[in-house]
Specification:
It contains 13 helices and 16 strands. It is α/β, with parallel strands linked by helices. Strand 8, helix 4 and strand 9 form a beta-alpha-beta unit.
């Protein structure tokens, strides 16, 4: 079978394949994880600070081989399954099938053995970075004292990764000639002590005689009116969500203070999701596609308005996480007009066809609508005009500071 790991698993996989996580040869199983948590070592007694795990939603058996894909669908590694736990945790050794090509700054990703060969036995002062470096003079002075090559290791995981690499390249220009920059996709660990220990382990793998951990970046979010925002409407067909969404778009365009992108559910289905059915799997895929485009819009400070039915809570949560991951804000608006009122309106005749069995898997009739319990705003348009509903949403945006 084939499987695409999530971003954290993918980052760990790259470090397993490169040798930066030696002595690990693959993902950890139950016994190793227990030993890591309890004693900071593997089951065989080898020191190791942090869990390195992979979860599969499909069932596999010992001896099965799973091809692990990168985000573009290219084979990256083969995992030979040693065991699978009840929660989907899979352990086993991995073997590389090709050099990682995905993501930015691929040219700066080098293996520890390649870097050690370039060092040629010279000592190295490794500096691991998750943000810009405060004092380059201290780094230069320490390297001079050690007679060491400076090795900048920007930890290029996640959305902030490219900025960290750029900070390393800027620092390289101001440091002594011969300073090396190697991009390392090390995901941060929650406990600072464990994160530091893992950074030191990776630095040693790259040939460091000494290691300096750069300061953690200070993240101060900008004011709401400058941040990306996704306004995500959900509700039954005929609830009024698309009409409210269009009204909000027009109101924001009249204000002119935000760049607005409007993603209507029906329009998206004719373009971005053409060919998809109304099965649960295809509905989820449709919402993920909408969420991806909306998150990309918000990533660059834009305001995206989405108006799909989005009947399933799990998929709505995925979209919220997509938006959160790019540092933008997410506002869920539940247009909670009751089914009876939506059927009464039924200007497309869809409910009548669904009741007659002509439309299978129709939300609210033959397929469930999971009402959100995490909506920031709930609107019932049964006795509310569209203008009043738009005013409610706009008022929420103003009170939250997203619109001035």
């Amino acid at each position: 079978m084939e499987w695409t790991p999530d971003p954290r698993e993918l980052a760990d996989l790259e470090l397993l394949l490169s040798g930066a996580f030696e002595p690990l040869a693959g993902f950890l199983g139950h016994d190793d994880l227990h030993a890591v948590h309890e004693r900071g070592m593997l089951a065989d007694g080898s020191p190791w600070p942090a869990p390195v795990t992979l979860h599969l939603s499909a069932e596999v058996a010992p001896g099965d081989e799973v091809t692990l894909l990168d985000p573009e669908g290219l084979p990256l590694a083969a995992l030979t399954v040693a065991a699978q736990e009840a929660d989907g945790l899979v352990s086993g050794p991995v073997k590389g099938l090709g050099a990682p090509e995905h993501g930015p700054f691929a040219r700066l990703r080098r293996t520890p053995s390649e870097v050690r060969a370039e060092l040629g036995g010279r000592p190295a002062l490794a500096v691991t970075m998750r943000g810009p470096l405060d004092d380059l003079s201290e780094i230069a002075a320490t390297a001079k004292e050690l007679d060491a090559v400076i090795l900048l290791l920007p930890l290029s995981y996640g959305e902030a990764g490219p900025a960290v690499v750029r900070a390393a390249l800027r620092a390289q220009e101001k440091l002594p000639p011969g300073t090396l920059v190697v991009s390392v996709p090390l995901a941060p660990r929650e406990e600072p002590e464990i994160d530091l220990e893992l950074r030191e382990h990776v630095a040693t793998a790259y040939g460091a005689a000494e290691h300096l951990a750069g300061p953690e970046p200070v993240s101060i979010p900008g004011p709401p009116h400058r941040r990306g925002l996704v306004v995500f409407f959900t509700g039954l067909s005929g609830s009024g969500k698309s009409t409210i969404a269009r009204g909000l778009r027009d109101a924001l365009l009249e204000l002119g203070s935000r760049t607005v992108t409007y993603l209507d559910g029906d329009v998206v289905r004719h373009l971005l999701s053409k060919g998809l059915t109304f099965s649960k799997a295809d509905r989820d895929l449709n919402i993920r596609r909408i969420g991806f485009v909306a998150a990309e819009t918000a990533r660059h400070g834009g305001l995206a308005i989405c108006a799909p039915i989005a009947p399933y809570a799990g998929t709505r949560e995925e979209v919220r996480e997509m938006v959160d991951s790019v540092g933008a804000d997410f506002l869920l608006v539940h247009v909670a007009t009751p089914l009876e009122e939506c059927e009464r309106r039924d200007r497309k005749g869809l409910y009548a066809k669904a009741r007659a069995g002509l439309i299978p898997e129709f939300t609210g009739i033959s397929d469930p609508y999971e009402e959100p319990d995490d909506a920031e705003l709930v609107i019932d348009t049964t006795h509310l005009s569209i203008d009043a509903a738009v005013s409610q949403v706009l008022g929420t945006l103003r009170s939250g500071g997203w619109v001035r």
